[in-house]
Amino acid sequence: GAGETTRSFEADVARLLHLMVHSVYSDKDVFLRELVSNAADACEKLRFEAIADPALLDGGGEPAITLTVDPAARTLAVEDNGIGMTEAEMAEALGTIARSGTRAFMERMAESAKGGESRLIGQFGVGFYSAFMVADRVDVVSRRAGGDTAARWSSDGLGTYTVGTADPAEAPARGTRVTLHLKEDAGAYLDPDALERTVRAQSGHVPVPIALRRAPDAEPERIADGAALWTRPKSEISAADYADAYRTLAGQFDDPALTLHYRAEGLHEYTVLAFVPGSKPFDLFDPDRAGRMKLYVRRVFITDEAEILPRWLRFVRGLVDSADLPLNVSREMIQESRVVAAIRKGVTNRVLSELGKLAENEPGRYAEVWENFGAVLKEGLYEDEDRRAALLGIARFRTTASGEAPRSLGDYVAAMKDGQAAIYYAVGADADRLAASPQLEGFAARGVEVLLLTDQVDGFWTSMVPEFEGKPLRSVTQGLADLGAVPLREGAEAPEAETAPEIEGFLAYLRETLGADVSDVRASERLTDSAVCLVAPDRGIDRQLERLLASAGR
Ligand code: ADP
Ligand code: MG
After folding, report:
1. Which of 244, 281, 296, 529 has the least C-beta neighbours within 10 A?
2. 103 has binding-site annotation
3. Residue of the nearest CA to atom 15 in ligand 1?
4. According to the UniProt record, where is the region A (predicted)?
5. Residue 101 assigned as binding residue
6. For position 150, what pLDDT does the model report?
7. For 4-45, where are the E strands, in sequence order?
8. Nearest CA to ligand 1 atom 11
9. What is the pLDDT of residue 24?
């Protein structure tokens, strides 16, 4: 058409598209979830922009998503009357990989061995480009809310796309239409009944109504009512409904490990729908990744950058819908709002207490949550002093006594030996190697349990958390791990008395030989089989932390 230009995709997009086109991923339905969720996002963006500029809503009708099947032309169209895109916005959004999720997906792809691809698609969802799993050509026409020109974008997914102005007559009155020219083997998406089932199951809870047109000239039939799930009473919502809402909200493809749905009343009124994922989201350790909770005001999406939850709960996905905030709340207002501060505090405490309940009532399921997210929760031990005690209470550890089932510090303290004054821990990269280290011989000989800490953060929080329930935490690599008061187990051999004159003479010889390389050489009750081990000075920095700091160049 007029003013149409052909452009090449960014290299990363081209790679991603190649993958989509040749994908062997069997659950191709995910493309529908992606397109419907983009359409819903567009409607929510419009609702939000219209708060400041109500004229944007003129003549476009109530927010709606419409699917149209055209068996003769072998096309499936997903249309919304949301915010729309200008030509420039199209080239930006549909020619590059703007979203961090897709970027992270690409990085993981590069790391993973060949063949892991389809599994990764299933885990992440990859946005708009997933349309090329089922289509050999995708056309997008769009009209930005408030604008009078229309734009079009088209591609066969093979390296280039065209973008240009569109005839306004072929574009929606407002919003975007994405038309998929279905591949030979994707004919199933032309069956309206099957389509209806899939969309209901996957996207029945998006907060925008969805209609289906069974043929281009047929009337649209409503297949989902757009009633936001969280506004309905809990008693009317099934586990399957929650799971669908979770997948839509979290972009996950599994089942939630924990679901929270409640309404806070009192000083502030808000509804919370939040999930602890059943598996690790891919961007869990992304340093820029703050919380993923969305903020709504009376069902209008406001932002997902309100940082409702602290960083150490960044794996929780969901939303808060406030009845107290003004609809035109700005970024600055959110920063300073006392209402938002109260919501943050309330939701954080609630998530923590629900995790505590799960730990108590369903230890097996909780163990999985801890396995996935314990390393993140531990960041709270040094970031949030007020909640440290609660976090220590729900922390679980592999120890020299735990076997496969992780233990709590409460379990540890209850099992402490007579004369044992501290909680002992060893930090390292590998639990089995730690357990076999000479540092632990003296502990084993006395039957004293040692926590085996293998997460990156363990070196940090242990240096900042002084105690649990009055028992000091002590690293086994720090000197004088005062075990003297704990009797040896029966059959274990007592080390030589350290005052024996031959030993003193030998120690003096070692001190002289090693010189400034060590600060002291001592006999110790910590070893039973090995001859020597290196320890940090009594008040010195833990050796593992020392290594971490050295690797960070400090
Ligand atoms: P994400 O939705 O995570 O941003 P996608 O790949 O699904 O990533 O979409 C990329 C971008 O394309 C969106 O961020 C949005 O800017 C734009 N987009 C896609 N579909 C629509 C639509 N129906 N209406 C408006 N913009 C859209
Ligand atoms: Mg999307």
Report:
1. 529
2. no
3. 93
4. 1-331
5. yes
6. 96
7. 5-8
8. 93
9. 62
Tokens 């402490």 sit at which residue? Answer: 416
Give nearest CA residue, ligand 1 atom 18. 38
Q: Using CA atoms, how far apart are residues 129 and 550, in angstroms rounded to an integer?
A: 43
Say whether 447 counts as a known binding-site residue.
no
Q: How many C-beta atoms lie closer than 10 Å to residue 77's C-beta?
A: 19
| Ligand 1 center–CA 35 separation, angstroms | 8
Which protein residues are within 6 Å of ligand 1, measured from CB?
34, 38-39, 41-42, 80, 82-83, 85, 93-94, 99, 101, 127-128, 176
What is residue 22's predicted lDDT score, i.e. its pLDDT? 77
426/436 Cα distance (integer angstroms): 11
Mean pLDDT per 10-residue section of the chain, whose length is 554 residues: 83 82 74 90 91 89 95 98 95 77 67 60 70 95 94 94 94 96 96 93 84 96 90 92 87 90 93 94 65 82 87 93 83 86 96 97 95 95 95 96 90 94 92 88 90 94 93 80 74 58 75 77 67 62 58 48
Which residue has the CA at smallest separation from atom 13 of ligand 1? 93
Q: Is 331 annotated as a binding residue?
A: yes
What whole-number distance in Å separates Cα of residue 293 and Cα of residue 275?
Answer: 10
Q: Which residues pair with 117 in a beta bridge?
A: none
The whole-number pLDDT of residue 553 equals 46
Confirm whether residue 253 is marked as ligand binding.
Answer: no
pLDDT at 494: 57
Kindly write down the DSSP assignment for every residue of 176-223, as one continuous string.
Answer: EEEEEEE-GGGGGGG-HHHHHHHHHHHHTTSSS-EEEESSTTSPPEEE
- 159 neighbors 14 (Cβ within 8 angstroms): yes
**Ligand 2 center–CA 129 separation, angstroms:** 9
Question: Each residue of 27-50: b (16+ CB within 10 Å) or e?
Answer: ebbbbbbbbbbbbbbbbbebbbbb
CA of 251 to the centre of ligand 1 (A): 14
Protein residue whose Cα sits closest to atom 21 of ligand 1:
38
Give me 525's structure tokens: 């009750």
